[in-house]
N-acetyltransferase domain-containing protein (Levilinea saccharolytica), 299 residues
Amino acid sequence: MGLTALLSSLDPARGSSTAVVTPAEGPPMIGQMLYRLGGRSAHLSFLVPGNQPDSPALLPLLDYLTQQAGEWGAFNLHAEVEERNPLFEKLRRAGFVVYSWQHIWQLNPETLPDGQPALWRPAGAADEPAVRSLYQCLAPPLVQSAETLPNMRQSGWVYRQDGELLGYMEAVFGPRGVVLQPLIHPSTDRVEALMRALPLALPPLLGRSLYLVVRSYQSWLDPHLENLSARVGPRQALLVRHLAHMQRAGVPVTQSSLLPGMESARPKPTAPIVHPIVVQSRRSSSEKMETVDLWHRDA
C-alpha cells in the first residue's frame, strides 16, 4: 500500500475516509480509503500499525472501509502490499484476491545517458483509441477485470514506431518524486532509448526522484532497467476485493423496439434475447462493526 499512500496527496479530486477501530484488547488500528468521485475502484491508502496483522481490529476495519467504498459507488477495493508482509495473508483471508504483481524501480536521471527528446510526445485525445487498444492487447483479462482503462485525463506520453502506437507512459507528479507507469509493446526495438528519453520528455524534475512501476506482464522491461543501473524495490502484490458481481439478465425485444424500417429485415424473436451485463452491488455487512468503536472522517 506504499505507492497508493505516496500518490494519495497528489490528486485533489480524490475523497478519503479515515477510520479508527478500538478493540476490547490491544491498541487501536487506523486505516484510510481513497476514492475518486465517479470512479470504478477505491484504494486502501494505509493501515496503521502495519506490524500487527493479528490485531482483532483489522477485519472490522477492513469491513468498514469496504462498506464505505461501496456506499460511495466503487465496484471494488484495491490494496498493494509487499509479498513478505504479514498483512498479505490477512488481506487474502479478508476477501482480497491477487490479480497481478509489480516492482517499483528508481531511476537516477543524472546517470542516464543522453536520450532523444523526440521519442515521446504528450498524449492527446486522438491517441485515446490506440492507447485503449494497446492496454487491451497487453494487460491480461484478470487485470482488466480489476482495473480501469488508462485515464487519458491524467498526464501521459505516447511513443509511435512507423506510425503505430507502441508505448504509453502515465505520470503522477509530486513534490518529492515523479511516478511513471509504462505500457510498452514488446515489438518495439528501442526500449532503452525510450527509458533514456524520459527525463527529456517530462517537465523539469528539479531534483525529484523518478520511479517506474513495472507490472508483471511488463517484466520483460526488467533487464533493460538493470542495464540503466536502476534500483528495484521488493515485489508487491496487487489485490482487489470485489464489491459487485456481474449477472446476465434477459431483456425482451419487442416489435416496437426495432429501428424504423427494419421490421421486415429481422425475424421476430420467439424467445427473449439476452444482453449482458447488469451490475448489482454487494456490500459488506455493517453488523460486524457493532462490537467496536468507530471514528471516521470524510474529506
Summary: The chain has seven helices and 15 strands. Residues 8-12, 269-299 have pLDDT under 50 and may be disordered. The chain has three domains: 2-102+239-243+284-298, 109-229, 249-280. The longest helix spans residues 58-72.
